[in-house]
Amino acid sequence: MKELMQVRNVDDRYVYLTLMVNEVTCSACALSGTCSVKGNEKDIKIQKKSIKSELLPILPGDIVVVDLKYNEAVLSLIVYGIPLLGFIIGVLFSYLMKFSDIISFAVGIGFAGAGFLLTRLFDKKYKIEITDVKRSVGTQLFQNEKDENL
């Protein structure tokens, strides 16, 4: 899924992005005011070292195309389903081995923890990536000065 985002801030290690929301579009929507798109002030931060060198420099005010590379349903299944499945398997395994309830619960928690560690492996597959940059006027001036100095 690709989204248009605006660069809010840039520091030494991260680029902070905010979602661009068209107010007119949101006001016409039946879910206006109840969804998490409008009014969600959470920033996405991307490590600078993961951005392709031909897209740099990225400065505040630039508009970027971000490839989120995930489907919410699949991601929810991975994040919640794998640990839950681990818990159920752990409890059933302990029950079949005739352990007490407390030990079965502890083994279930252990299997859920192992399931959580498995989700960390899938997390690397769903990295957020900047695919294109539309430079703001300030960035274009900075780029022109940089080219003249070369």
Q: What does this 3D model show about the protein?
A:
45% of the residues lie in helices and 20% in strands. The protein is α+β, with helices and mostly antiparallel strands and 150 residues long. It has a 5-stranded antiparallel sheet with strand order 3-2-1-4-5, with no helix packed on it. Strand 1 and strand 2 (14-19) form a beta hairpin. It is elongated.
What portion of residues belong to β-strands? 15-25%
* Main sheet overview: 5 strands, antiparallel
Strand tally: 5
Shape: elongated
> How far is it from the N-terminal to the C-terminal residue, by CA?
38 Å
pLDDT averaged residue by residue: 77
Using the CA coordinates, give the radius of gyration.
Answer: 22 Å
Q: How much helicity do the residues have?
A: 40-55%
Structural class designation: alpha+beta
Q: Give, in order, the helices and strands.
A: EEHEEHHEH
Task: Count up the helices.
Answer: 4
In short:
The chain is an alpha+beta fold and 150 residues long. The protein contains four helices and five strands, in the order ββαββααβα.
